[in-house]
Amino acid sequence: MRYLPHTPSDRVEMLAKIGASSIDDLFKDVPRAAWLNDPVDLPSHASELEVERHLSALAAQNMTASNVPFFVGGGAYKHHVPATVDYVIQRSEFLTSYTPYQPEITQGTLQYLFEFQTQVAELFGMEVANASMYDGSTAASEAVLMAQRVTKRNKAVISGRLHPHYRDVMATVIGKSDGQLDYAPLLFGQDEDLAARLDSDTACVVVQYPDFIGQPNDFSALATAVHEAGALLIVVVTEVVALGLLRAPGDMGADIVVGEGQSIGNGLNFGGPYVGLFATRQKYLRQMPGRLCGETVDADGKRGFVLTLSTREQHIRRDKATSNICTNSGLCALAFTIHMTLLGGQGLTRLARLNHERMIRLVTALEPLKIELMNEHFFNEVTLRLPIAAAPLVERLAARGILAGIPLTRLSPSTDFENYLILATTEVVTDADIDQLVSALAEELSEAGQ
């Protein structure tokens, strides 16, 4: 039975209080043409068992990443998440807690956020990190806004090898302000000359590491040019596992480093919720969006944690808010911290090496097919140029039970890219998965006369 707390007399009294004669009066501003004349065409009711069976049947139609060879990346990666992570985050004190409005009372929450900040800062090679953001794309957009505040300029130069979804989110966020976005084109076979786009209005340059096609680059020279122009370098990391092997962005001169933390502790989850990472230099601390947890001692000299900086739009200092990010991805940040703690520094390096070795195995297995590899270097992701269109090939391979990456046209719809395919491997990809993909690719190319 539906729970309807208001009795008919309750409703009459409430309507009289606001001067309405009937419930229909509440909708008088909605044109009659937009009203439904009949009930929605849905089953009126069903038992819990019937609903469960129906939804299970719908779910069974999905081809899941856990059940087939899976080579999809593009900013969201399937990694093994230890059972310990889910066990700990489901403890009631973590699962039910929310943003600490009386922060000093929630010492446990503050402590894990403090540890999270420490891990992110060390990963990125930066001095300070915040207590997380919604996801990588919004963190990247907030980084551009922060650079505009710091430099008092409004132009952002955006690499053509930044994830297209991140570019789209920036267009939405920055497009509502006075900011100007200068998009470089996506190029293959040549280096980007982003320094040539710098001018006196440039607030920042945004690059991805490893980039959208899977290639890690050294941005040290670019950082020097950006700083000489009085701008900031923003580095976006969508696959944080790569930092177990690659040089930290901060060591290359980055001023702001942001990223997506999904790869550590968080499953694919059909696209979310994820966790945004944000770190910067100490001198820009007060322009950093979000919240910052700090360490202190109480009156008795005991170690404690506090919400050090929190100029958010909800708080008493909302007139000084650096963004309208009104919460953090607390549970996802905790999952990140637990997994990172379980790994440790050496474990992260071993995990990164496994990812890279899996891609070496795949690239080696593809060599007999004479498929062109567009990466000069790679971590766990590569872009291939096939002799046939990638999108229909991916659909045919899916029918064979193989999720074979992302056609570039799905993210950058241009006929110039119709033969490009992005493949990713992680530690969960087996030799048998690779052999199955390569065999199916060989058959498809043979049938196409290639």
Describe the structure.
The protein has 450 residues and is of the alpha/beta class. The protein has a domain at 84-145 and 201-340: Aspartate Aminotransferase, domain 2 (3-Layer(aba) Sandwich). The protein contains 12 helices and 13 strands. It has helices spanning 8-18, 48-59, 83-89, 92-95, 107-124, 136-151, 164-174, 220-228, 330-366, 390-399, 408-411, 431-447; strands spanning 128-129, 155-158, 180-183, 202-208, 232-237, 256-260, 276-280, 292-297, 303-309, 372-373, 381-385, 406-407, 420-424. It has a 7-stranded mixed beta sheet with strand order 1-7-6-5-4-2-3, with helices on both faces.
Concise synopsis of the structure shown:
Helices cover 35% and strands 13% of the residues. The protein is α/β, with parallel strands linked by helices and 450 residues long.
| Oligomer kind | single chain
Q: What general outline do the C-alpha atoms trace?
A: globular
CATH topology of the domain at 84-145 and 201-340: Aspartate Aminotransferase, domain 2
Q: Characterize the biggest β-sheet.
A: 7 strands, mixed
How many extended strands?
13
Low-confidence stretches: none
